[in-house]
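Hi R.,

As promised, here are both runs. First protein below:
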Amino acid sequence: MAAQHVEIVEVGPRDGLQNEETPLPPARKVELIERLIGAGARRIEAVSFVDPRRVPQMAGAEEVMAGVPRRADVSYIGLALNRRGLDRALEAGVDEVNVAIPATDGFCRRNQGCSVAEMTDAFAGIAAAAAEAGMPVSATVSTAFGCPFDGETDPERVAEVARRAAEAGAAEVALADTIGAGVPGQVADVIGRVRPVVGEARLRCHFHNTRNTGYANAHTAVAHGVTVLDASVGGFGGCPFAPGATGNIATEDLAFQLDRSGLHTGVDAAETARTGMWLGSVLGAAPTALLGRAGEFPAVRG
């Protein structure tokens, strides 16, 4: 009997880089993506079509998309927050578009300059335009487990944002712990509230390890039927609009955990760890991932 497959969406080239002090030129980002593909990544959040004046680390999205290898088995995701971002994504040739919809007004106003209600309405327009262009679109409900400005997030509001996104055409709805405040019991509760209201849309989860709960949250999500998880090579990342936010759960550490639990990811944890160490040297920052330091287990002996 084949092992259950858990898909890891590699978000390192976008979420992993957006909060780092050292911006990478497009050629380096393409090299990172090539290394990740070599390590088994098949869905990659490659670029963000946001204003580079606000997030300079995301400059050069079009150049990155012009340089990435085009393969039938690799899907590139571009983040867009408005119709202009969608237009750029379509022109650049991404395979999927992801739109972030915060669940809290405090974060939404600081990150996207509007209320949650306004962003939810905007998503409906983006999703309709994407559908007309034949572009798959997903929605990430950010601050789903806590907000740096509003505090606790009402789980019913998360479910309502997710419901409206699915009704507007999101093929996939991601629940994002933007600041790493969530705990396993909370993850189980939110998934239980969201799943009944999103219809056929797939559920995805996006965790940060800010308070050392990210991997436990990922395990809980899988135990509750989620089969798509975001992770960032090396554990790099963090939101520039969330004070104190630290990195995502690391792709290599997550792949190790899932593979050792008898699940299939298709991601080579050891090769991803080597890429994480390489990225750390390029950025001049130490990865938070541990597999690159601890090594494989059982150890590979020559």
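And here is the second one, sequence first, then its structure tokens:
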Amino acid sequence: MIERPLPATRWIALAIVPFLVVAVVVLFAAPERTGELFAWPIAPPLSAFVLASAYLGGIAYFLAVWRTPSWHRVRHGLPAVAVFATALLVTTLLHLDRFSANLPFAVWLVLYATTPVAMVWLLVVQRGHGPGARRGAVPEGDVAIPAAVRVALAAIGLAALAAGAAALVVPAWLAELWAWQLTPLTARATGAVLTLTGVVNLAMLGDRRWSAFRILYGAQLLSLAAIVVSLVVRRDDLLWDRPLTVPFLALVAAALLAYGAVTVWCELRLRRARATA
């Protein structure tokens, strides 16, 4: 596997960023006008905020793909983006009648019809341009994530992936239990967001290098922080009589603390490793 991202990888990543920026601005600044300015009308605004939070992490990730000199530092994000985009494409095709007949929807459809193919293609062409550092090896100046931490985070990822898959298959089930009002469309979109964490965390079972997840965890922390702010700002959208409201809030808080703690711990060890390398 080549160590440096190919020009195609970098340029595709950079091309995606402006669309994510526009989506974040619209979803955060004008959630009540999503039917006009976005691909479909989203209610309540908290659903728009959560989707925007995922896109915010995506901006950080794709900018990192553009800048990084090391392919392994961003490689595990592409499968997650492919699954996320495929889930939203399936969601779109199942709910075409709910989307707006406007330019944002046309852009949305083109993006989600092409992104899964583009991500898989990039993974293939990167693998086909020669070997890089052996996956899972921890070179000098890097640190290993302990097996117990990786297994615990992978278990969280598996749970998130399972919940996302359930939301895609039986959205009415999630809508009845969720912390705020969902339609079948927004339930499936929320499920797509959950798959991002799931795919990234499961990759930790096969790669113990902190450098391979450092960028991804930074993006996830940004998304989680945005979700926390969204929950505070849109707290009136929460339905406290729903079974999953308190568990969801607790899970978000726990994830923010856990990812933050792992990041700080690994960064401190990385600093010491580089100092002695």
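A quick note on the second one: Residues 245-276 form the longest helix (32 residues). Let me know what you think.

Best,
J.
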